[in-house]
Amino acid sequence: MKERFFNTLYFFILLILSVLFIFPVFVVVINSLKFKFSIATAPFVLPNADTFSGIENYTTGIETTGFLSALGWSLFITVFSVGVIIVFTSMTAWYITRVKSLFNSLLYYALVFSMIVPFQMVMFTMSKVANVLRLDNPLGIILIYLGFGAGLSVFMFSGFIKTVPRTIEEAATIDGCNTFQVFWLVVFPVLKPTAITVAILNTMWIWNDYLLPYLVIGKDYKTIPIAVQYLKGGYGSVDMGALMAMLVLSIIPVVVFYLLCQKYIIKGVASGAVKG
């Protein structure tokens, strides 16, 4: 009875927390279907016959912001940045974990230290360096994201690699695999749960990032967070209906990506629990 009571209590606590997290998203969705004047007067009321705007907010937002172009640039930057981060940080983490040296230790602590440095401390220097090195373009910003995302990613990969037994790598070496083959054919498949977790964290960060793209590539290659700012008119006026609609469209890809990857995380953790 005591165990059942605590299980029920935990269930209701988690249910309340879920509602609190989902409620803001629900408010954004219902307001994206209402006229902008109705949003100001009754933001928490469901749309009715008088306030329902249909898809007008969506069409207005897409035309005003150039949303399709921004979506393309956001997808390009996010996909390739996350891919580069996973490839290079996983190899780096494997090397500094397996090869013990003073340089590798200093490199590891430098990467960990980079996680606690506020972006505001380096943003002006970074934007100047990016301009001088001609990194102020969609390809260049991928390298910048690699630098900013390396700290957390290497930290997570290193923690998991320490739990992977060396014997499987030694067995692969005895079977004739070179270093490249050992990592990509033996080690990296084992890192799949961590790789997906790193991909989710970096995708959510890069997709929603506003400041770094604004400083580096500016208005020439608008990402979604930058494009949404074009809904702001003179004297601080904002088309709230179109803004809500664009927010809904911008969160859909991330939500879909998370839902698709969630099962792989659970599957990877479950398979890792019985490994060896």
Radius of gyration: 23 Å
Reported by name, the CATH topology of the domain at 66-231 is MetI-like fold
Mean pLDDT: 87
Low-confidence runs:
268-276
Main sheet characteristics: none
Strand residues, percent: under 5%
| CATH first level of the domain at 66-231 | Mainly Alpha
Number-wise, the strands total 0
H/E element sequence: HHHHHHHHHHHHH
Which term fits the overall shape?
globular
Ends: how far apart? 37 Å
Give the SSE map:
Blueprint: H1 2-31, H2 36-41, H3 56-65, H4 67-98, H5 102-114, H6 119-132, H7 138-161, H8 166-174, H9 179-190, H10 192-208, H11 211-216, H12 224-228, H13 240-273
Question: How would you characterize the overall build of this protein?
Answer:
The chain is mainly alpha-helical and about 280 residues long. The protein has helices at about 1-30, 35-40, 55-65, 65-100, 100-115, 120-130, 140-160, 165-175, 180-190, 190-210, 210-215, 225-230, 240-275. The chain is built from 13 helices and no strands. The longest helix has about 35 residues, at about 240-275. The chain is globular and about 75 Å long.
